[in-house]
Amino acid sequence: MGSLLLAGLLAKIALTGVWLSPPGGWLLAGPRVSEAATPAESSPAEPGALLRVASLLHRERQSLSAREAAVALREEQLRQVRQEVEQRLRELQALQSRILEAIEEEKRIKGEHQRHLAATLEAMPPDKAGKLLEKMDEDIAVQLLRRLKGKEAGAILTCLAPDKAARLSQRLLQ
Prior knowledge:
Layout: H1 2-20, H2 33-37, H3 45-123, H4 126-135, H5 138-147, H6 150-158, H7 162-173
Helix pairs in contact: 1-3, 3-5, 4-6, 5-7
């Protein structure tokens, strides 16, 4: 970026030099014959124009330096924001991982509890197990009946009220 600015300044200086050059071009030798015969004229515009160009160049350099500083500051701010975002992303990913682990652990524990309850229902006489399922939430009752062997689940369903047994049987098919 700095080399581009330098090239632009050099081009500006070259164009200004061409613009401010005398109509005959730059003279490397002495005055021409026609110029020697005329009285020397002082050209007050030339030194003033050079000072003006130098002043403009100085202001342009200051402006470019200020812009470069602003761009550098903005880049630093963006770098800091990027680092913060990356850090927050890592934190969120770690939190997501912990949450997924907790959900899996909860599922595992819930499964263990259901297996234990299913084993308890298997050990009970079908009429007592039926009374227990009669009072349970239907979702849980269906999950438990799915864990039982078909013969035991059927024996328990015969001990339930016919409408509840029908609903549970229908849900077992889903």
